[in-house]
Amino acid sequence: MDRRRASLGRVAAAAAIAVIAGCGGAGGGAATSLPSGAASAGPETLSVDAGGADAAHPERDFLAFYPATLSAHAGDTLRMVNPTRGTPHTVTFGVLPDHSNQPVLITPGVGFAAVSGGPCLSSQPVTSTTTTCPGAPAGAPPPAGTPAAEVPLPGPYSGQPYYNSGIFVGGQTAVLPLAPDLRPGAYRFTCLLHPTMAATLTVVPAGSPIQSATALRSAAARQLSADRADAATVATGVPSTTPGIVQAGAVGRELTVNQFFPSTVSISAGQAVTWRNDSYEPHVVAIGRQITPEDPLVFGAPNPPPGAEYGSGPAVSGLFGGRPLPASGYSVRFTAAGTYPYTCPIHPGMAGVVEVR
Q: 123-146: buried (b, 16+ CB within 10 Å) or exposed (e) per residue?
């Protein structure tokens, strides 16, 4: 979803956009094996990419942390860099691997719930019904206007039961300090919006070596290279659909291809078009009206409702996709001949056409 997604922050002002689950495992455990370097003489700053991009294929979103494993010391700082065109992400600790305690993501008709869309550092765990930051006020939503280059968090990560950066978009960096007293162990974090995005931070004792910055960059590059190869397979492997059926997007293991398949569909007046999406990446169909990613219509109920007749004017599906979204498709019956262009407002450049004979 794109730079105005920053505005997502605004709708995320109440908290705001779309989807899915995360996994975060809290507290200590056995350290995983990681490339090692020399022991550091003091606190270090480590950079991780939240998501990835491909300038040659802007329709492809890479949904992983690059790299997916890293080691650090208590007192170090993580810089979570979002290099995408505008895709929103979070860095979230404390959501279980099975997502069973994933807090509420979206407030229908409004946007992201405060516990998911805004910063939240809580000494209390969350549940699947949590909508606000438990035991503490949520951080302020992003201000209107151009997003800040850096998103400082209200406090360090010290192993809290729930710790969420809030949404940060393409071009932004979430700055996440590790508390000096963070105990050694493995800590899993995720992006609340994209279930494929999970990574492990291993905190090692003071004086123990961690990977070098060069090793960190190399691991990230190898992982992204593999995902780019996967993307080429995904983009060419979408099966043909039956007449009147459009697949909204296609996904790989750690990526999504934001296109409609097919991009042009031809039907006769009186027939319906159905858009389907059972993946983890949400989509929206907007016909007859250009809307922005933060528009309340994105988060609202389908209008007109699925299966209704459509002749002219705006028709907006609302978000649809796999769980936890309420629907995995949208359909309308076209009553008049004509050409009807449409877009997915949360994925810039994702567009299609319905030709009605």
A: eebbeeebbbbbebebbebbeeee
Q: Provide DSSP, 66-93.
A: ESSEEEEETT-EEEEE--SSS--B--EE
Distance of alpha carbon 88 from alpha carbon 224, whole angstroms? 18
What confidence tens digit (pLDDT) does each residue in 14-29 have? 233 334 333 333 443 3
Angle at 313 between CA 292 and CA 240, to 5 degrees: 75
Sign of the Cα pseudo-torsion (35, 36, 37, 39, in order): positive
DSSP state letters, 268-305:
-TT-EEEEE--SSS-B--EESS---TT-HHHHS--BSP
| pTM to 2 decimal places | 0.79
User: What gap in Å lies between CA 130 and CA 141, rounded to an integer?
Assistant: 18
Residue 244 is given by DSSP the state T
Dump the DSSP string for 205-230: -TT-----HHHHHHHHHHHHHHHHHH
Nearest CA to 298 out of 18, 87, 59 is that of 18
Chain centroid to CA 59: how far?
A: 15
Q: Could you give the 3-state DSSP secondary structure of residue 266?
A: strand
Domains and CATH numbers, the chain: 5-233 (2.60.40.420), 240-356 (2.60.40.420)
**C-alpha distances out from residue 301 to 107, 108, 326, 341, 349, Å:** 11, 8, 10, 21, 23
* Number of neighbouring beta carbons within 10 Å of residue 38: 8
Q: pLDDT per residue over 111-157, tens digit each? A: 788 999 989 999 999 999 999 999 865 555 555 566 789 988 889 99
Amino acid at 59: E
Type of residue numbered 223: Q
Q: Is the N-terminal amide bond of 205 cis, ω within 30° of 0?
A: no
Give the pairing type, strands 272-276 and 245-251: parallel
Q: Are 256 and 60 in contact (CB under 8 A)?
A: yes
Taking the C-alpha atoms of residue 324 and residue 193, their distance in angstroms, rounded to an integer, is 11
How far apart CA 238 and CA 202 sit, in angstroms, is: 38
Exposure of 248 in the CB half-sphere (CA atoms within 13 A):
31
